[in-house]
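Example 3.2
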Amino acid sequence: QVRLVESGGGLIHFGGSLRLSCAASGISINTKNMAWYRQAPGKERELVAIIFSGGDANYAGSVKGRFTISRDNTKNTVFLQMNSLTPDDTAVYYCHVRLTSYWGQGTQVTVSS
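Structure, written as tokens:
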């Protein structure tokens, strides 16, 4: 059984930082492209960042330069370092194994102004 468990969300002030983690079990992520998505209230889920199996990464324009996606294949875990957070970053953040139906349950990030 594949499980993706996100952690690290919470309430943070404007300009603060958070680091999200996504721990995978039941699947080895080292050959997988992994992604973080987010969904704000009343909005569609949007792609935030992708990290490819080789280590390259792509970002949504709204987070480029502020967020960094990384992976530790030895720990079967993907991370999202989020800096300079603004209220527009408030959302539930989800981990996803690209090209599969595997999603985490999400972790809430709330940025206060």
